[in-house]
């Protein structure tokens, strides 16, 4: 339920901060006083679209913020997770929406920025509107089906069907994806096989490619490298350092005999002589290892040219070339398997459709039985709400397989005797639709999970005992939901567990709307009911108001 509501600069309202209670809340006020401001605040929080005209004149933006206490947070948390939004903490859902005059609007859900679409999706879970200018779910075929399913109580059968439907949808997607895969022509297949053969001629491991590049670099500068190695042999050989080092080493030894402090220097000189000898041997080995075999060199050139070609086409790394090779192999392999794969998926599809039809038959039977029971209970309730000669039937007809079965459900209604039953959307006024919804909601109260219900003009064109009965049903509905009703009937207003009064004050420069609660202020509530009865200063009206409250 809505526990707290804060409204700022919305329409004619400067600011209102309301603590809401559970059960049935009535909203009253003079005609034109601005009762629609409260409904507008709910509409904004439900994610409905609006325009900049809702911002109070002179203000830069309007905002509405609500704190909702969820009796079953696990259900709303599932929706929040699907929308990638924060879960409710301690069962609280925090919503805020801001509409600026000159910028884009902002939405916040549980403290995190969200989109209007996310807010709207969430709104479908926690609030229902019934009245003029509001989205009347009852007139939508999918809502009528949901209501019938609630009454039938076959949630497990419906879940089983939906699981099969998801599998059916995935199977169709797989068949389409495989069937629409790019076909490979004979010429293209030949080309792809040639590319695979080229790649298979090389070892495409990282180590092998690095060795190939090193060997090719050495080969490409073979003469230059040989010349440098010859110079090193000359510099380190018998005509170079190898000739001079023994003399220098002998001198260093003589110095060490005379001066013991030079002994470490002599040791270093010995190490240097050994290192120079090792270097000469290693350079000589490199020189001997130079490959001048023309056949081997030609093979090396061929491999390097092949690697450069593959690198240019599929590179830049050996890994990327290997990945391309696997893609080509998979593509060639898949061509031979496409028909077999499609055949397997088609067989699976045939079995799924048979299972779906079987499960859809179970749902149809349950819905057909539930339709008569729900319509009968709703007709009885409609009679108590002033539709003495009204008729309501629920037609369940076969349809194509879909996400919720193979049924088309339609609520047929006629408000007066002698008229044909027609779809509810074609003949019901907003007030009639609201009362039909009230009847259905009352019948479904124990199974309907929508926590907040908002009724506007539910008491239109009724009065007296019928008005009182409308109030009683709304109050009874408040046992399982938080119900808000904008009303002009004192019989209804007296039955509210909570009572909000909207007042409008005007002067020459401005108009202001305010909302305040009177359910804890007996005298003020009596005065408001007396006003609704015709005259708040009339002793008769005040006495009648007291009787209504005492009776409630």
Mean pLDDT: 85
CATH homologous superfamily title of the domain at 1-131 and 457-520: P-loop containing nucleotide triphosphate hydrolases
| SSE class | alpha/beta
Query: What proportion strand?
Result: 15-25%
Specify the CATH class of the domain at 1-131 and 457-520: Alpha Beta
Placed side by side, the strands forming the largest sheet appear as 2-1-4-5-6-7
The CATH architecture of the domain at 1-131 and 457-520 can be named as 3-Layer(aba) Sandwich
Q: Could you list the spans in which at least 5 consecutive residues all have pLDDT below 50?
A: none
Radius of gyration: 43 Å
User: In one word, what is the shape?
Assistant: elongated
Explain what you see:
The strands form three sheets. Strands 2-1-4-5-6-7 form a six-stranded antiparallel beta sheet. Strands 8-12-13-3-14-15 form a six-stranded mixed beta sheet, with helices on both faces. Strands 9-10-11 form a three-stranded antiparallel beta sheet. Among the domains are: 195 residues, Rossmann fold; 152 residues, no CATH class. It contains 18 helices and 15 strands. It has 552 residues and is an alpha/beta fold. The protein starts with a strand and ends with a helix.
């Amino acid at each position: 339920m809505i526990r707290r509501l804060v409204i700022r600069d919305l329409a004619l309202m400067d600011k209102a901060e309301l603590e809401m209670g559970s059960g049935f809340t009535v909203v009253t006020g003079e005609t034109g006083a601005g009762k629609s401001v409260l409904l507008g605040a709910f509409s904004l929080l439900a994610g409905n679209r609006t325009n900049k005209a809702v911002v109070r004149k002179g203000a830069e933006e309007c905002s509405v913020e609500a704190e909702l206490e969820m009796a079953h947070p696990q259900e709303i948390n599932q929706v929040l997770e699907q929308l990638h939004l924060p879960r409710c903490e301690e069962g609280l859902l925090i919503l805020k929406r801001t509409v600026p005059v000159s910028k884009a609007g902002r939405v916040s859900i549980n403290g995190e920025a969200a989109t209007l679409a996310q807010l709207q999706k969430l709104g479908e879970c926690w609030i229902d509107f019934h009245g003029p200018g509001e989205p009347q779910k009852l007139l939508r075929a999918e809502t009528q089906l949901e209501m019938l399913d609630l009454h039938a109580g076959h949630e497990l059968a419906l879940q089983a069907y939906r699981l099969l439907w998801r599998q059916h949808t995935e199977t169709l997607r797989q068949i389409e994806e495989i069937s629409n895969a790019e076909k490979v022509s004979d010429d293209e297949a030949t080309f792809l096989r040639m590319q695979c053969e080229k790649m298979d001629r090389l070892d495409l491991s990282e180590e092998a490619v690095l060795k190939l590049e090193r060997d090719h670099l050495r080969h490409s500068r073979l003469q230059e490298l040989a010349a440098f190695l010859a110079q090193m042999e000359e510099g380190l050989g018998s005509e170079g350092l190898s000739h001079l080092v023994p003399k220098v080493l002998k001198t260093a030894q003589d110095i060490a005999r005379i001066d013991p402090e030079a002994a470490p220097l002599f040791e270093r000189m010995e190490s240097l002589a050994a290192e120079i000898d090792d270097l000469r041997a290693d350079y000589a080995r490199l020189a001997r290892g130079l490959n001048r075999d023309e056949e081997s060199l030609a093979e090396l050139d061929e491999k390097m040219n092949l690697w450069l070609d593959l690198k240019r086409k599929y590179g830049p790394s050996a890994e990327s070339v290997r990945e391309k090779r696997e893609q080509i192999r998979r593509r060639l392999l898949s061509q031979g398997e496409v028909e077999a794969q499609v055949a397997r998926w088609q067989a699976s599809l045939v079995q799924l459709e048979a299972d779906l039809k079987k499960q859809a038959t179970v749902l149809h039977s349950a819905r057909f039985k539930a339709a008569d029971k729900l319509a009968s209970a709703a007709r009885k309730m409609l009679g108590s709400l002033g539709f003495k000669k009204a008729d309501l039937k629920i037609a369940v007809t076969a349809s194509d397989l879909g996400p919720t079965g193979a049924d088309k459900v339609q609520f047929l209604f006629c408000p007066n005797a002698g008229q044909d039953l027609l779809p509810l959307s074609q003949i019901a006024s907003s007030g009639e639709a609201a009362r039909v919804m009230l009847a259905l909601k009352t019948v479904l109260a124990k199974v309907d999970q929508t926590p907040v219900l908002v009724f506007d003009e539910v008491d239109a064109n009724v009065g007296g005992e019928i008005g009182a009965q409308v109030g009683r049903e709304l109050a009874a509905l408040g046992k399982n939901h938080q119900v808000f009703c904008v009303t002009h009937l004192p019989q209804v207003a007296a039955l509210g567990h909570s009572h909000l009064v909207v007042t409008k004050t005007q002067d020459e420069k401005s108009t202001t709307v305010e909302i305040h609660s009177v359910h804890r202020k007996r005298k003020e509530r009596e005065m408001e009911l007396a006003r609704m009865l015709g005259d708040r200063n009339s002793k008769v009206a005040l006495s009648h108001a007291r009787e209504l409250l005492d009776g409630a």
